[in-house]
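User: Some background: our group keeps a shared notebook of sequences we're curious about, and every so often someone picks one and asks for a predicted structure to add to the entry. Today it's my turn. The entry only has the sequence so far, pasted here. Could you supply the structure so I can complete it?
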Amino acid sequence: MLLNQNTLLLGKKVVLVPYTSEHVPRYHEWMKSEELQQLTASEPLSLEQEYTMQRSWREDADKCTFIVLDAEKWQAQPGITEESCMAGDVNLFLTDPGDPAVGEIEVMIAEPSCRGRGFGTEAVLMMMSYGVTKLGLTKFEAKIGQGNEPSIHLFQKLHFEQVAVSSVFQEVTLRLAVSEPMRQWLLEQTSHVAEKPYRAGSAEPH
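Assistant: Of course. Here's the predicted structure to add to the notebook entry:
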């Protein structure tokens, strides 16, 4: 999605930056993991295919992707590359032509050292806030593999409710309708987040 190509979101634990070609090699290494392939229902791609996918995600109007950076590492070491601070990614897919106000959200904290530290929770809250305020979304949906208990628990903690289980796809569907009280709660949870202009290749706080 071109809308977020110049947007950096600075949180307490994570920084969200647009997915650029700079991030592809590290992402490609992550996705060689059989565990991550299983958790994300993904097929391994060649590096060339990964670059093609990155361009698609950047340009397609129905996909909004941010790379999740470790904020502490990113801020503590001036001049450090974004690639070396990468923790995962968070995505919104606007794939329901009948309802443009619904977004399918997914998060992946791929870097093992970054798991269990609240990165996924803050990244999802920041992405939901972005979806509500910038994309006009009022409903969110998450489709998660039945065996991915940490991710299911994360979304349930954020008030998503399970609405379906597919034995065929072995996945659970959770949904959240953003009522006015929920919108206010979401904005409160992300009131610390600063939106800044993004400059590709620069990892120093702007």
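Suggested note for the entry: Helices lie at 24-30, 34-40, 47-59, 71-76, 119-134, 149-157, 180-189. The two ends are 22 Å apart (CA to CA).
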